[in-house]
Amino acid sequence: MTSATARIAAWTGMVPIDDTALAVSDSGGSGIPLLYCNGQFATQRYWRRVIAELGPDFRHITFDERARGKSRTSSDYSFEAAVRDVDVILEARGVERALLVGWSYGAVVAAHWASRNPEQALGAVLVDGAFPHDWLDGAMEQRIRMLFRRLAWLRPALRPLGLLPQMTAAQQAESNIELGRLSRARELSPVLDGISVPTRYVVGSGTSFGSRGDEQERIRASLDRVTAGNPNIKLAAKVPSNHGAILKKDAPAIAKAVREVSELA
Q1: Order of strands across the sheet that contains 121-127
Q2: Which terminus, N or C, of the chain has the lesser number of Cβ atoms within 10 Å?
């Protein structure tokens, strides 16, 4: 495997895994490798402003998760598959150690991967995600299923534009429900407590898609216990953007957190 000091050529292509293949882009260069983990149904394009802020001093590796963007469909859209995909991409690109940057669902993926792989993880930046809070109950499950059923009528128009994953409404709902189960305090808190590498949170403000009232702010408040219990984890910034706009409008704050972690790596 290559080190961060070896200069790597830029590369874009498909990385096969299990019954699918993932679209991956690697900027190359000789900087610290950054692997970006997307929001649940987002694509690698969402990271453009963050990457522009950080510039060529880093090696930027982005990818589309299964059935998202240009990646192919799969029979497995589980969270564990998403974590495994991180290992496969890093190995395919010859990266021995990396700093993970994750937003929303991707923040939970990055937190799990960093906790499980302390020898490979240089650190993590978690953007408005990975909050240990019991936000999922029976009523919320029904809300989620109804929301994705209602969105299904947009699929014919949005899917050709790459704005929806190649997943059914039921598959999207089940993925979101699984995230809720994994985010419960009894599930996620031990993962975060076990992180032994420098980790920084960048936290948004206001609502997220599908949330109501102050739900999102109550979820974010659970971070206080995390930072109090693990000295490796700190809050880097609380920014004004909401959950959906944070990568676009507060890219400088995210880039600053990445630089801070990279200096500690």
Answers
A1: 11-17, 20-26, 58-63, 32-37, 98-103, 121-127, 199-203, 233-238
A2: N
